[in-house]
């Protein structure tokens, strides 16, 4: 049974909001741990994903238009915060565990239980938060309980050749046997080198 990770998801999302609020226009061209994406592309994707998940929670997520990544506007931090508040509010609905979410990015007919969809969003924003922090050369700290809850979510993500496909969310897993640091283990499981440096 999928645990209810909505409180952890909100904490992770709010941590990303604090980071994005520190982004300045001159930062948008910085590289990120997401191969081929600068910070502007990453923030645009993060904003779009919030909106897509919020739409899906409300039963409108079947159209890819709801998930469309759009270029950043003049105030990316405000735009991002607005989208983040939308998804936080959407996930807070008491009947989310009983809902079914459409996730058209995985296929036109893909539907998943509400709490499983929340778990997908949760692991994304644990990782994306680290991506943004690394891009900005800032620390990224999340509560230990949250990180321990994220480890099994990362472990459940299928590995294999699909992670090499164009547009794959995560790179192939990296070795991390018995990694005592839960964030480092999560990063290895999603193919992010925990020591990624900006070049």
TrEMBL record:
Alphabetical list of InterPro entries matching this protein: CHP03086, DinB/YfiT-like, Maleyloyr_isom, MDMPI_metal-binding
GO molecular function: metal ion binding
Gene3D superfamilies: dinb family like domain
Coiled-coil ranges (or none): none
Pfam family, one: MDMPI_N
Domain Mycothiol-dependent maleylpyruvate isomerase metal-binding: 12-115
Recorded superkingdom: Bacteria
NCBIfam families (UniProt xref): maleylpyruvate isomerase family mycothiol-dependent enzyme (TIGR03083), TIGR03086 family metal-binding protein (TIGR03086)
Name the UniProt record assigns to this protein: TIGR03086 family protein
Species: Micromonospora siamensis
């Amino acid at each position: 049974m999928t645990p209810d990770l909505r409180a952890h998801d909100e904490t992770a999302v709010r941590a990303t909001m604090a980071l994005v609020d520190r982004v300045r226009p001159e930062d948008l061209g910085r590289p990120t741990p997401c191969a081929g994406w600068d910070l502007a592309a990453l923030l645009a994707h993060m904003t779009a994903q919030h909106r897509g998940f919020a739409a899906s929670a409300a039963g409108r997520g079947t159209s890819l238009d709801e998930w469309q990544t759009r270029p950043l506007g003049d105030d990316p931090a405000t735009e991002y915060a607005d989208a983040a508040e939308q998804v936080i509010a959407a996930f807070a609905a008491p009947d989310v565990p009983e809902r079914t979410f459409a996730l058209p990015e995985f296929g036109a007919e893909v539907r998943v239980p509400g709490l499983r969809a929340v778990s997908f969003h949760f692991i994304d924003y644990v990782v994306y938060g680290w991506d943004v922090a690394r891009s900005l050369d800032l620390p990224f700290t999340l509560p230990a309980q949250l990180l321990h809850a994220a480890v099994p979510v990362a472990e459940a993500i299928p590995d294999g050749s699909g992670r090499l496909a164009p547009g794959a969310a995560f790179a192939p897993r990296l070795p991390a046997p018995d990694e005592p640091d839960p964030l480092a283990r999560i990063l290895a499981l999603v193919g992010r080198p925990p020591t990624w440096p900006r070049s």
